[in-house]
Amino acid sequence: MAFGGRKIYKSPAELRLMLEPGRITAASLAAVRAAIRPGVTTLELDAIAEAAIRDAGAVPNFMKEPGYIHTLCTSVNDEVVHGVPGARVLEPGDILSVDSGAEFGGWNGDAAFTVVVPDPSRPEVVAKRQALADATELGLWAGIAALASAGRLNELGGVIEDAVAGRGRYGILEDYVGHGIGRSMHEEPPVFNYRVRPGGPEIKPGLVVAIEPMVTAGGIETHVLDDDWTVATDDGSDAAHWEHSVAVHAGGLWVLTADDGGAAGLAPFGVTPVEPK
């Protein structure tokens, strides 16, 4: 079945082929997370992710975006998404969002996390930024869990918005949303992180989406920096970004880019993931 003229539902065999690129994407992010510390550059993190992906026999799919030459997007402090790795040195207390993706066997994975670099000298700053990261992650998992019970994809936006709002006065970007994923990293349909008119495609076996709330500590207006990639907040407020690629199948749902299929993140919502067979 198609949505907007494009096929969006995968067969059971295709879903199984998406397991490995998801696992490789997760492994690349785990390697990067282990290396994050004050003094490391974002380009060094990029090299770690590239090595993890290529050593697994996969290709960094961000490099297939025209004009982009890196494995990761690394967004620091007021940068929301699409930050370009470079000579920037991470400082204590920075809030860093890391986005990675791998292509394996012609299929794609895409995921992101946000972390606060430790800074014992500024506990208030760390706590505020950690709260933002936690609220964004909660929105992600609430949206993933909703796939188990919602009828239409657009219902997830309201669930994500309510989960984030329950943690404080945060802004959810509207100019950037989640997406379908499969043979291409970015496919139909869009996945909204905020409340929209009900509808969208039916949530049923074969649907694979990348859910990715992008949340700020202030306003939602953004601009693109001179590198033509990095998206930053207009008001200079901090930002966070979390993402997972998720498959819906006959047995339930499975978070393709989580080592445990999403078991830990979904447990508070009473949802148990089931691996596609």
Mean pLDDT, rounded to whole units?
96
Question: Radius of gyration, rounded?
Answer: 17 Å
Structural class assignment: alpha+beta
Biggest sheet: strand arrangement: 10-9-11-16-17
- Describe the oligomeric state of these chains in a short phrase: single chain
Instruction: Write the H/E string, N to C.
Output: EEHHHEEEEEHHEEEEEEEEEEH
What's the total count of β strands? 17
Q: Approximately what portion of the residues adopt beta-strand conformation? A: 25-35%
Q: Number of helical segments? A: 6
CATH superfamily: Creatinase/methionine aminopeptidase superfamily
Helix content range: 25-40%
Shape: globular
Walk me through the structure.
The protein has one domain (2-268): Creatine Amidinohydrolase (Alpha-Beta Complex), CATH 3.90.230. It contains six helices and 17 strands. It has helices spanning 12-17, 19-35, 42-55, 123-146, 155-165, 263-266; strands at 2-3, 6-7, 59-60, 72-76, 79-81, 95-104, 107-116, 171-172, 178-180, 187-191, 208-211, 214-216, 222-224, 231-233, 239-241, 244-249, 252-255. It has a five-stranded antiparallel β-sheet with strand order 10-9-11-16-17. α4 (123-146) packs antiparallel against α5. The radius of gyration is 17 Å and the shape is globular.
